[in-house]
């Protein structure tokens, strides 16, 4: 009972902190939105994703890491908001590319307004992110501001490389993939902009550019990979009401997730042929029966359990790298929050 109580308290504390950050960041994002015309087809849609509560992990990482290394909230908030605005811009484009129907519990922009208007709104969010970042970096000395902008450039390129890799796998119908391929993909597509970049930027500002970034990359990669695998699993086993996105959407989209890669590696010839047939279909051709069949095979061949165990191994490595990454950080609530994130991800699986 004590273990269950401790896990519940951990989840409550972490999610309470994330909600607190989310409220502050949403207010600031919406305050940064331009007023003008056309409201119906640009400025209104631009406000939709920032208005919907998300995890707020990225700004929370930036704020906590920055304060742990000595920065003030005032120095960091604009940077954290720019990160979250760019994340929302990426989401709009991701939803278009994936043909997704749900985002944060409501229809996607492309489902509501059409692809063209959604892409315009996504571009607009990216522009506002740059405006917010420019204002925020005026607080910093020039060399430090240049370093922060360079970090954003690197993050954006790594993310695009990952997105292009995933799109290429689907367009070329690549099937002979394994865990190393998956980790390479999410290092670029997910980890860099979800965990590594927010941690690095916060630490750079807090330390005045003197922090050793290598350990932060190693911790951020392993923590981010485990977090992404957890999200992949929730897409397969979660409930749409709490998950906020289309359940089984990854299967409908033909995404090369770790459970799918494992299934392809262990299925017998008959079942592997079914998976190959499924992968060669377009999203519109993948019927609910076909999608459910692939999902059932993941249970039959232990792909869900394999993925959970794989992620738990990555989390253990992340825990080891944490102390190296934050050896120069100041003790306090921000460091405690960052330290609690690894057991938090673990607790959410229990």
From TrEMBL:
| Organism of origin | Mycolicibacterium senegalense
What cofactor does this chain's UniProt record say it requires? Mg(2+)
**Entry's Gene Ontology molecular function annotations:** all-trans-octaprenyl-diphosphate synthase activity; metal ion binding
Q: Describe which pathway this protein belongs to, using the record's wording.
A: Isoprenoid biosynthesis
What keywords tag this UniProt record?
A: Magnesium, Metal-binding, Transferase
Q: What protein name is recorded for this chain? A: Geranyl transferase
Q: What Pfam family does this protein match (any one)?
A: polyprenyl_synt
User: Where are the coiled-coil regions?
Assistant: none
Q: Which InterPro entries match?
A: Isoprenoid_synthase_dom_sf, Polyprenyl_synt, Polyprenyl_synt_CS
Q: Which gene encodes it?
A: ispB
The keyword Transferase is annotated on this UniProt entry: yes
What EC identifiers does the entry list? 2.5.1.90
- Lineage: superkingdom: Bacteria
Record's family? Belongs to the FPP/GGPP synthase family.
The GO biological-process annotations, alphabetized, read as: isoprenoid biosynthetic process
């Amino acid at each position: 009972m004590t273990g269950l109580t401790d896990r519940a308290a951990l989840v409550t504390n972490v999610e309470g902190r994330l909600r607190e950050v989310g409220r502050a960041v949403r207010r600031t994002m919406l305050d940064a939105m331009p007023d003008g015309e056309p409201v119906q087809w640009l400025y209104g849609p631009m406000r939709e994703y920032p208005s919907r509560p998300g995890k707020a992990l990225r700004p929370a990482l930036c704020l906590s890491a920055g304060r742990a290394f000595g920065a003030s909230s005032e120095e960091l908030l604009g940077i954290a908001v720019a990160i979250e605005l760019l994340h929302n811009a990426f989401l709009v484009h991701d939803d278009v590319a994936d043909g997704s129907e749900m985002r944060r519990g409501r229809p996607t922009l492309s489902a509501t307004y059409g692809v063209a208007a959604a892409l315009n709104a996504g571009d607009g969010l990216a522009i506002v992110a740059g405006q917010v970042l420019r204002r925020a970096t005026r607080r910093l000395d020039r060399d430090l501001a240049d370093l922060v902008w360079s970090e954003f450039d690197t993050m954006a390129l790594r993310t695009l490389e990952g997105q292009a890799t995933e799109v290429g796998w689907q367009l070329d119908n690549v099937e002979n993939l394994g865990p190393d391929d998956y980790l390479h993909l999410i290092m670029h597509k997910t980890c860099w902009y979800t965990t590594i970049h927010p941690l690095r930027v916060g630490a750079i500002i807090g330390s005045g550019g003197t922090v050793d970034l290598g350990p932060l990359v190693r911790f951020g990669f392993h923590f981010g990979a485990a977090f992404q695998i957890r999200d992949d699993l929730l897409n397969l086993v979660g409930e749409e009401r709490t998950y906020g996105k289309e359940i089984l959407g990854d299967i409908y989209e033909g995404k090369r997730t770790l459970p799918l890669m494992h299934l392809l590696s262990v299925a017998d010839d008959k079942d592997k042929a079914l998976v190959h047939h499924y992968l060669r279909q377009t999203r519109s051709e993948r019927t609910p029966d076909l999608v459910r069949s692939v999902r059932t095979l993941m249970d039959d061949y232990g792909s869900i359990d394999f993925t959970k165990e794989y992620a738990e191994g990555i989390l253990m490595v992340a825990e080891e790298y944490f102390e190296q990454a934050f050896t120069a950080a100041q003790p306090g609530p921000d460091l405690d929050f960052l330290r609690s994130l690894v057991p938090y991800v673990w607790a959410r699986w229990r």
